Amino acid sequence: MKRLLLCIPNQSVHYRGMNARPQVSIPLGILSIVAFLRENGWAGDVRVYDARLSASFTTTQEKGGRVTLFGDDEATMGKRIAEIAPDVIGISNMFSAQFPQALRMAEVAKQACPNAVVVMGGPHVSVFPEETLEQPCVDYVVVGEGEERMLALLRCLEAGETPAIPGVLGRPEDRRLLRDHPLVKVNFIKEVDDLPLPAYDMVDVERYFELQANGFSPRTREWGQRAVTMITSRGCPHRCTFCSIHATMGYRWRAHSPDYIRRHIALLRERYAIDFIHFEDDNLTHDSERYDRLLNILLELLPRLPWDTPNGVRGDGWTLERVRRTRESGCQYLAVAIESAVQNVLDKVVRKRLDLAQVDNLMVFTHQEGLRLMAFYVVGLPGERLEDIDATFRYALARYFRFGVWPGMNLAVALPGTELGRIVERDGLRDPSLPYAANQLTTSEFSPADIQKRFRRFQRLKILIFLWRSLTSWRDLRYNASLVWRYRSSIANEFRKAFGM
Ligand code: SF4
User: Fold this and answer.
1) Phi-psi label, residue 380: left if phi above 0, alpha if psi -120 to 50, beta otherwise
2) How many domains are contained in the chain?
3) Residue 246 Cα to ligand 1 middle (Å)
4) Which of 82, 177, 370, 395 has its CA 20 to 30 A from that of 66?
5) pLDDT on residue 296
6) pLDDT score recorded for residue 94
């Protein structure tokens, strides 16, 4: 029987003049694979190695400039992998911007254990399976969801057979095992309830709690001391042009049953005493009736468990009653994904199929119910005019001023595997030699400098509204003071950027 090591690479947090926040959370995808292997009787030895958990920083000088890494350095990673001596090494890569680190870890793994089989999975490699396979340190690429494919691959390797598994590439000719679709190359698990609960016992959950509560959470607002991410559904039928989930989760929305969610929450509460849930589904509120049933589960919990939706939910389908039950069930704030204040941009550029009038209803309802609302916007998409972008900035500030809807303004990122990425590449709107980052697009309407200038002005006005709201509302003052204290260093950074200090 083989020994399998599943790895999460260290993170690059400063490279070529760009900064990224170190982020650590329990690796749910990997823990779901482990649980699936166990449930299906795979009797090999499984280990998990998360190179981020040391939370150390290493700075090196490379050709492109200074690089700072978060987590174990290469020597430590190589030593850890060699000590475990696995037969198969799986490396997870969640974000395209971190793909070079995942690849570096694959090289380190191959050097440490030359006879081991190295497998890569995750969103980036699901979009570029063939290119990833060209790397000499990578033996197999798993596209899409990993549970069933990893089990099938391990069984083939143990039997000494050449794998021929849809969605698993080991040789260039395996491309025939992929679907002929530009974004979605594989099929997806139909019944997500057939998956066992993630194997939390495989990791040091306390260490994740500690790092998250001390500034390394991926969420911009981390209120819990023992917070977990939970995913109650996979996939999304919508086709927003910038969205990258379809290559890994598909267009078909598949939800866990109330019974499954109840068991999951009970496990986390009883075994790990969790005090907060971040629901990070791709589309948590796609089915309003199912969302109501989720609220029923949360309303049953005594004492209540605080929760939020940091990925954002749809802005349609809300009623006053639904918002009230959301608040009563423990929701601390809702994040809603609006994207643009211009209906035409929403329809033709973002292609979100969202009616702005319904979003306004949600703002009124949450204001009435005293439930905090945060809104995500994105500007700088090809097809937008400068006046559209200005309208979104104005809308975001006006809704913050009037209803207290905190504006989370994003500058467009053309990720690979998205319709936006395809348009940008086709029209040559971005320098392809740059690592993926926000605000790199130049169109006939705007340049990154135009967007940056407007964004700075927006940030300054946002800070002024923040101060005004704090001084005129006792409730906002208390909330904002705790926010400032908790996020003092990142707020100071934002302040410096906004005022050019
Ligand atoms: S952005 Fe949200 S609604 Fe749009 S496709 Fe992605 S998950 Fe679906």
Assistant:
1) left
2) 2
3) 9
4) 82
5) 98
6) 85
